Amino acid sequence: GNYRQCLGVEEPGQLFSTQHCIVEAQGILPPQIAEYLHPATDLPFRIDNVIFSVCVPSTCSEKDVAEHMDRSLAEVNSSASSLVFCSSKDPMSFRTKDYIAALVFSLVALLLSVSAVSDLYGINNPVLSAFSLSNNFQSLMDTRKSDVEISCLNGLRVIFMVLVLTDHRFNINMLQMPSSAKELHKTLDSTLPGIGEFYKKVVDGFFLMSGTVLAFSFFRKNMKEKKFNLLRFYIDRYFRLTPLLACLILYYSTLLVHQCQGPVWMRIASGMEQPCCDL
């Protein structure tokens, strides 16, 4: 049924509230149709599974919902898979790791605030300057050209970033449940999957640009007869890339699931959270 309609149901005695669940069922379609509908693709869901939307009391666990659906689907020799996601109008409770992540990001926000105050009072500190919003914003908006840069790469960066953002938007749309098999087939038979495969190659463009810049920097220093320190190079790259990647993994594995509500979102967020937790 409808998500908002389900959450709007009130039990007269106020003994429980309601929650909306989606249940992915296997074995409903005949084998020959299921085999046809499930090609060798990397889609985040099985096309041959049928997803049911049910409204149940909030006192029911996801395991209870799966067992109930198993009994209901037994008549057609089908069963509910482990992919059961429920959501109620009450916000999801914070887990221990969520509090830790919130503390880490709060410390980062505190550093940003302290750096802003230090800028006002003219305090020159290299650590605080790294978190300075004003300095970083000025660097981002600086359009002056340098003699030691490959200026044509700036345009390529913009093009690749737009393509990557478009690809991510396409992937999010594919993560959502299709409303009907007809709609799904219409999408898969269109040019969108082909475009999506093309976008995946765009990431290689960033690796190409990164390698080009590194090679350019190496040869430029080599021409000036500067000694190349391989160990320092890897240390610099590690400290430049790791903090941002670590923050991204931390957010995806903790706070991302709290960004929205609804069983469909829980299905999407859990698919993003689990790989980060497995790292």
TrEMBL record:
<keyword id="KW-1133">Transmembrane helix</keyword>
<feature type="transmembrane region" description="Helical">
    <location>
        <begin position="198"/>
        <end position="218"/>
    </location>
</feature>
<keyword id="KW-0812">Transmembrane</keyword>
<protein>
    <recommendedName>
        <fullName>Nose resistant-to-fluoxetine protein N-terminal domain-containing protein</fullName>
    </recommendedName>
</protein>
<dbReference type="InterPro" id="IPR006621">
    <property type="entry name" value="Nose-resist-to-fluoxetine_N"/>
</dbReference>
<keyword id="KW-0472">Membrane</keyword>
<feature type="transmembrane region" description="Helical">
    <location>
        <begin position="238"/>
        <end position="257"/>
    </location>
</feature>
<feature type="domain" description="Nose resistant-to-fluoxetine protein N-terminal">
    <location>
        <begin position="1"/>
        <end position="68"/>
    </location>
</feature>
<dbReference type="Pfam" id="PF20146">
    <property type="entry name" value="NRF"/>
</dbReference>
<feature type="transmembrane region" description="Helical">
    <location>
        <begin position="99"/>
        <end position="123"/>
    </location>
</feature>
<dbReference type="InterPro" id="IPR052728">
    <property type="entry name" value="O2_lipid_transport_reg"/>
</dbReference>
